[in-house]
Write a structure and sequence with these properties.
The structure is a homodimer. In chain A, helix 5 packs antiparallel against helix 6. The first copy, chain A, is mostly helical and about 500 residues long. Chain A has a three-stranded mixed beta sheet with strand order 1-3-2, with helices on both faces. Chain A folds into two domains: about 140 residues; about 325 residues, Orthogonal Bundle (Neurolysin, domain 3), CATH 1.10.1370. Chain A contains 21 helices and three strands. Chain A is about 65% helix and about 5% strand. The first copy, chain A, is globular and about 70 Å long. Chains A and B meet through helix 1 and helix 2 of A and helix 1 and helix 2 of B.
């Protein structure tokens, strides 16, 4: 009885702190979607005040008391209750070991950093961004230090995004992936099959919005519990009943907005699939960014680049854009959708070479943290790595080191999740296919419900019960590895480019 | 030196609490502009958590300590410092006398109330709204009770919006206004001059947006420090560098969106004109809702319904909408802009009869608080009063008691400010004209800067130094009275309808 009271009180306190956290997330969404240009400083003050309030709620001393009580009686707790307590302890320690002033300063720095990045990127001015980046790095290291990760700062940043993951584990997985991927990219590059670069042009923004809405709704995104808006860099925020995705539109690159929106739809459906009643506890929390990315990447790639998907949506695309698609055959369209061509820009990259973009960032980040690489040497190191991995050298930092938003607010250690997510997505995909071989025929009929329901049951509703490594083992029966991803890429792209 | 430290510490704490308050305001804006329909419950939890955090910041015991210190040394404070301390004391007492649970519950109720109202209005279902309204009334009375206003609950609600104002003062001003207004409305109703009801039809939303943007920007709204969006009920929120207005568009009533946007522009320019460095203290705070409404109403009515304004914008309107304005003469256009015709809907009302809508609501609100009127009898009482004051009986509650958003979140005592604002606007207008007789010629050239600068200097930058009664006396040399408003209405509308 005493345990149940402590658990109920703890849950209420966690939910309150979580609600303040989601308000902070909404401020972040608003900042990128709506904020007037002159309001950055005022917004920084709001973010700082809110971060302070959130920190106060998360570090409430009573939480420590309830936790101590529950931990003393841990033998009497159910598995789910233990999961909740374990995560709450982790979060509480994180909240109480970080000084309130530090949290406030970091929030201000994050807000300013975003604006400094946007300005530097527009002006192609790395020198204007370098001090911000150095400061973000310093903040990250201080944070790791406060939490007892001194000397393992990059592992700390990785663990923040993917509990249990380390740079060493990632390094091994990525090396194995590289060994299989580099030859494949080389083979495809040598192929005589080439997608038509000009296949899809002049797609009105209004038409794209219409088509995008139809696709994302059909996949299963619930627009009564979410929305989509426009921002410079597509992202997904919010959770449960209020999930907010963004995209952007380019008239001559309709696939860019469509596939980035489907990617965010994958994130969004994961968040909408979490148990709403448990929001704020580990049971209503996603399992880490690699698992999150496995959801976005599966819908974006395994699903939306499949033949089955396009048997359903090709006629709809032609109906919305009759003139623009008149001269494009079914095969040309499918090849454009599955174009493989190295590019300098990660978010424009095809799904084969995409992973090389991630390996590039992972290796640079790692060196920034160990001190092997100085911030000021980053543009040069980026150019060298791009040439080595992608066979391309950025002519300017805007298409090199300045292209990504992540580091601008101190989100280091996030990039690896994208590639880990790709591995997990492929592994989950083959498991789903084994259970439901007719999956692509479902898609051709516009029916995505079997896959969504299977993910709901095995991934979404599980909350944070299992981390990425555990989830892979549990759902697919195999440890996480790059082999399913390599198999998938070779099957799909081999059929197109190498047959 | 000790005083200065206390003042600096107090200011920092006030700014932090204020920043959390503005985040709450942003949540409110978002709720009406962006929130997915299924997210109301989740948002209620966010609002409650934030209200709790804001309350904690505003009731921080250290504020009480600094205040006591400053009040002990009040003789050594400047006028401005006294203003800051006085307002901080008022807010601190308000924050510390309201229990945190009450504040949280009230926030949840406000959020639910808005959605219940929107639903009830759509379904024309007063019975579904009555329990919410009764609960809102109960919350308002409890709040007044906590703050020592027991027995004077409605005065408390008025004072919240307009410091120093009472139901008795308003009753006297409104009675005097009624005596002058009823004959004027009767004379105009008997006039042979009638505006063409169908003059302006088929104005595309895109064209309206374009024209509206040009007008509001020219008047002086700074879009680098604000924005305009669409909501069911137009409003203005935010302050300083982030002011957010809303409007709505009707193809066959282009003047509706234009004038409501100009109204909100008046509010918005006031907020943008507050001293940003002082936000969070009385010196960076508006002077109450009557003064706020004086700004919105002056730009909407005295300015934007004037001949001078339309000498500037008539050619622009015709350029954006050539076909729609082709058959409309300059005089017909001007008469449509200044149409006087009793209507059941307050926000659609002309500026002559508008004040009667307010008097109606003031009298009903007052009786709700004294208990002379029960919530369930409100629809009937509304119908009777509408017939007496406007000569019209609502056929259904949707165009009667369900039309306004205000009471849905417990904003009682707000309506009188609209009419007090009209009085003050007219009084300020004649003072401005006395100083700058060529004002309308400025407008004809598209130059609104003299008026805006004069308001900046005499009203906006004054913050909360003076309340509505003091401001009227100080800026116009006369006590607040309805006579300037009556003079203005008779001059403008007499020339159109009675000459």
């Amino acid at each position: 009885m005493k345990t149940e009271t402590a658990l109920a009180e703890l849950t209420t306190a966690l939910k309150r702190a979580h609600a303040l956290g989601t308000v902070g997330e909404l401020l972040g969404w608003d900042e990128q979607v709506n904020l007037p240009s002159g309001a950055a400083e005022q917004r920084a003050g709001q973010s700082a005040a809110l971060a302070g309030a959130q920190h106060a709620a998360a570090s409430d001393a009573r939480i420590g008391g309830w936790l101590a009580e529950l931990e003393a009686g841990v033998a009497g707790l159910s598995e789910d209750q233990r999961t909740v307590v374990k995560q709450a302890r982790k979060d509480f320690d994180k909240a109480t070991k970080l000084p309130a002033d530090f949290v406030r300063e970091k929030a201000v720095q994050g807000s300013r950093g975003y604006h400094a990045w946007a300005k530097a990127r527009a002006a192609d001015d790395f020198a204007g961004y370098a001090p911000v980046l150095a400061k973000n790095l310093e903040f990250a290291k201080r944070e790791a230090g406060y939490l007892g990760w001194g000397g393992r700062e990059y592992d700390y940043m990785i663990d923040k995004n993917d509990p249990g993951m380390t740079a060493a584990v990632i390094g091994r997985l990525f090396d194995e992936l590289k060994r299989g991927l580099v030859p494949l990219v080389r083979e495809i590059a040598a192929s005589k099959v080439k997608p038509r670069a000009d296949a899809l042009r002049g797609f009105s923004v209004e038409g794209q919005k219409l088509f995008l809405r139809e696709v994302t709704e059909r996949l299963g995104f619930d627009y009564n519990r979410g929305r989509i808006d426009i921002s410079l860099h597509p992202f997904c925020s919010g959770t449960g009943s209020d999930v907010r995705m963004t995209t952007r539109f380019k008239e001559h690159e309709p696939l860019d907005s469509l596939f980035s929106a489907i990617h965010e739809t994958g994130h969004g459906m994961y968040e909408q699939g979490l148990p709403v009643a448990q929001l704020g506890t580990a049971l209503g929390m996603h399992a880490g960014m690699a698992v999150h990315e496995s959801q976005s990447r599966m819908w974006e790639n395994q699903v939306a680049r499949s033949r089955g998907f396009w048997r359903c949506f090709e006629p709809r695309l032609r109906a919305v854009f009759p003139a623009q698609t008149a001269g494009v055959s079914t095969e040309e369209l499918y090849l454009a959708i599955n174009a493989v061509e190295p590019t300098l820009i990660r978010v424009d990259a095809d799904e084969v070479t995409y992973n090389l973009h991630i390996i590039l960032r992972f290796e640079l980040e790692k060196k920034l943290f160990t001190g092997e690489l100085a911030v000021n040497d980053l543009p040069g190191a980026w150019r060298t790595a791009a040439q080595e991995l992608l066979g391309l050298t950025p002519s300017t930092d805007r298409v090199g080191v300045l292209q990504d938003v992540h580091w601008s607010d101190g989100s280091f250690g996030y990039f690896p999740s994208y590639c880990l997510g790709n591995m997990l997505a492929a592994q989950l995909w083959y498991r789903a296919l084994a259970l439901r071989p007719a999956l692509e025929e479902d898609f051709a009929r516009g029916d995505f419900s079997w896959l969504l329901n299977w993910l709901r049951e095995n991934v979404h509703t599980q909350g944070r019960r299992f981390d990425a490594l555990q989830l892979a083992q549990r759902v697919t029966g195999e440890p996480l590895s790059p082999q399913a991803l390599l198999r998938y890429l070779r099957e799909r792209y081999g059929a197109l480019y190498l047959s």
